[in-house]
């Protein structure tokens, strides 16, 4: 689980893993998340890096800190994350993907076909 890639800061990758846990239902609304120390030890990273990932989730309102108890998933977090991640995809990822589709002269309809995509002649 500690296989990080250089294209993004580690805290962003940890934040994304936590988001995926919530979206998959591995951690439900109202549930405690693993502690900063636990995650830092498992991933062999500085606890401040993990704290930064948690702070990013607190900022968007999907995680709350309960003094002396840890970090918890807020009520409505999954829906809020779905909205947040969809908006992020449409604003940041999709324009880049669409540009690449056009540059490679791919047929967008064929990308959703069940058979492998062949480039246009």
Radius of gyration (CA) equals 18 Å
> Considering DSSP H and I runs of 4 or more, what fraction of the residues is helical?
55-70%
Principal-axis shape equals elongated
- Which percent band covers the strand fraction? 5-15%
Order of helices and strands: HHHEEHH
The residue ranges in which pLDDT falls below 50 over 5 or more consecutive positions are none
Number of helices: 5
Helix/strand structural class? mainly alpha
Strand order in the sheet with the most strands: 1-2
Q: How many DSSP-defined strands?
A: 2
Taking the alpha carbons of the first and last residues, their distance comes to 41 Å
Overall average pLDDT: 89
Short summary:
By secondary structure, the chain is mainly alpha-helical.
Characteristics:
121 residues; mainly alpha; 5 helices; 2 strands
Describe this structure in words.
The protein has 121 residues and is mainly α. The protein contains five helices and two strands; from the N terminus they run H-H-H-E-E-H-H. The chain has helices at 10-24, 36-43, 47-59, 77-103, 108-111; strands at residues 63-66, 70-73. A two-stranded antiparallel sheet has the order 1-2. A hairpin with a 3-residue loop joins strand 1 and strand 2 (70-73). Helix 1 (10-24) packs across helix 3 (47-59) and helix 2 crosses helix 3 (47-59). The longest helix is centred in the C-terminal third of the chain and has 27 residues, at 77-103. The radius of gyration is 18 Å and the shape is elongated. The mean pLDDT is 89.
